[in-house]
Amino acid sequence: MFEQIFENVRRKSPLIHNITNYVTVNDCANMLLACGSSPIMADDPEDAVEITAVCDGLNINIGTLNRQTIPSMFAAGRRSVELGHPVVLDPVGAGASRLRTDTAFRLLQEVKFTVIRGNISEIKTLASGSSATRGVDAGVADKIEEDNLDHAAVFAREFARRTRAVAVITGAIDLVADEERVFCIRNGHPMMSAVTGTGCQLSAITAAFVAANPDRLLEATAAAVCAMGLCGEIACRRLDHADGNASYRNYIIDAMYCLTPAALEEGARYEMR
Amino acid sequence: MFEQIFENVRRKSPLIHNITNYVTVNDCANMLLACGSSPIMADDPEDAVEITAVCDGLNINIGTLNRQTIPSMFAAGRRSVELGHPVVLDPVGAGASRLRTDTAFRLLQEVKFTVIRGNISEIKTLASGSSATRGVDAGVADKIEEDNLDHAAVFAREFARRTRAVAVITGAIDLVADEERVFCIRNGHPMMSAVTGTGCQLSAITAAFVAANPDRLLEATAAAVCAMGLCGEIACRRLDHADGNASYRNYIIDAMYCLTPAALEEGARYEMR
Amino acid sequence: MFEQIFENVRRKSPLIHNITNYVTVNDCANMLLACGSSPIMADDPEDAVEITAVCDGLNINIGTLNRQTIPSMFAAGRRSVELGHPVVLDPVGAGASRLRTDTAFRLLQEVKFTVIRGNISEIKTLASGSSATRGVDAGVADKIEEDNLDHAAVFAREFARRTRAVAVITGAIDLVADEERVFCIRNGHPMMSAVTGTGCQLSAITAAFVAANPDRLLEATAAAVCAMGLCGEIACRRLDHADGNASYRNYIIDAMYCLTPAALEEGARYEMR
């Protein structure tokens, strides 16, 4: 299944509009190219609405929010929904400041996202407070591990139900949920957290995967998560004794460039709950 | 000829002011350093005019336009022209949105550019609509290939005549034209399009090449285009089976750092039309 | 001593808030991760004050100043001082434009910095003009070398006394001074100047080193400077004939990731004046 999904990304080469932070934007662009998609960045309010209309999907990342680009997120998000384009939200730092938390809440209210991807802390923030998600049990543990996986899976499904989005909670084990099914994914490597922006890159390619597979949103999202984790594993095997997080960063993107659909199918490690 | 031109860049080490997008700005800075030049970035309107005055050339790239930096482009552009500094325009995405297209048109009207570099689609947009360029035959094909090269060369010369700039149209074959002569350049490698910002990097080093060679603008621009393409070729030969576009990105910049003027002279592949 | 200081960085993993330029921000983030710290970027005025409060230190870099982020620097700087957090200033380009110079002067007046790091030209600008530093002898030479080292050390001590900050002047020889003592540091490699942002990276990790060692500010700063220079040396030994400044950039960050506290202790080359 993932083989076909990844082939669709490579064949259709969706153009993805990114309104994202300036810290990891270059890596997001190269990772989109690596997976077979094409990136475009535009964050001026006037520009963003027009650019998003010529794209196949939109990726909104609030990593370095500012007052100039927030209106672009709303305008481009609404326009993309109108056009039937998939829209991904990466609520970086939701919970760490009012501006981030409030912006994420307001985005959830005004834009029907296709996928929402964050770590457990960010997703719990969204689940606990926004009117779109209020009532979701945010009492899930702060770290998803084997012994709380069932509880976390219920939380992810419920978050997906309330937001009507595919929910992605990344950590040592990654969860990808719609309201009925949950992929528990065990790809990835702990060293990925020593590279800035691997989460941002995952959100960007997720937009490409769902844009190329509109009829299988849950599976396409799970395929993106497995692909990113698998690239982290492949890149890790390439490290020599003098390599650190900078070379690792490059090797992860390289691994995506070299990854075949068949290798993704074979290397994906997940179970359904 | 290119040997001497590249030696001048290395010897004079021109300081280049870049008002450019935040996606590829780091690579532009490192590529400028790799070719022997020095980069400085300043895009606040107040700052940009003063900074451009202490530089040797200006590179304006509209890749992530926003309302704050557009006035800086005009102000710094006019100031550079007053001071006799070369100014390069990279009209990223002209034709894709009104803000980009209109800004590019207005820049063409108000700033006398030394070099304008874009892909065929961007240059056709500029040729078809701005008052500075109206009347240019924009009916040229969307892809420059062997069988329409003569027609494209005429188009490039005419665009150069109307804009009074050296025109650079990059693609599988690159054209570098003034109103009388056209360099048809066959350096480069298709994988360069899998790295974000190789066009931006070329525009940046073009500013350095013309700043260091003010009496040979056409040849200096052609030398920059050949150098960039040659680095793409050299970097490609270095790729091993696990390398992808991230390592390729680094190898291209590395290749510029290691490129000698003599190797540029020898590796440049072009003909005049 | 440096061994313990570096161990504290790795053990405490301070969270560093960076208000910095968009050119080198990604490398600053990865370098902070490489040394064992964690980065966060926030430059909207509303966001910056809240984010800085949840961090352990603040790094202010004026490399791409603009009117939107200047108020964030003041507000976050004051908030950090109130909270007793260390604050580092990197006055990039002070002296090159009024906006940069004036902003640096005003920051010096309103924020009590823990460390100020610049090249000799930037520090001389600060020393000559701000009311906080007026009267400091800025007649020191433009390049710190063996034969003017004593004079430069006196200048650095005096600058530290007036600003009540640890003063760092980087160049072929680096000086790290408080009002009584000066570390003269001979780590580093000339090729580091061919990589954009090695100075920015040093300022970022300095914030992490002082945040993790609040009782030894001078020594912690000297340790950061030695660590950065040592990584430049280690990375240089790794270069092969085809590598240039792009691979070198990665190798420097890799070297920090792999550097052990014991290796820093052993590799640090300095004397006190």
Query: So, CATH architecture of chain A?
Result: 3-Layer(aba) Sandwich
CATH topology of chain A, which one? UDP-N-acetylmuramoyl-L-alanine:D-glutamate ligase
Counting structural domains of chain A, the number is: 1
Mean pLDDT of chain A: 95
Helicity range of the residues of chain A? 40-55%
State the total count of DSSP E strands of chain A: 9
Number of helices of chain A: 11
**Major sheet size, sense and barrel closure of chain A:** 9 strands, mixed
Strand proportion of chain A, as a percent range, falls in: 5-15%
CATH class of chain A: Alpha Beta
Q: Which strand order do you get reading across the main beta sheet of chain A?
A: 2-1-3-4-5-6-7-8-9
Q: Which spans of chain A of ≥5 residues are poorly predicted at pLDDT below 50?
A: none
How would you summarize the topology of this molecule?
Three copies of one chain form a homotrimer.
Chain A: H1 2-12, E1 15-19, H2 25-35, E2 38-41, H3 45-53, E3 57-61, H4 70-82, E4 87-90, H5 98-110, E5 115-119, H6 120-129, H7 149-163, E6 166-170, E7 174-177, E8 182-185, H8 198-212, H9 217-237, H10 245-258, H11 261-267, E9 270-272
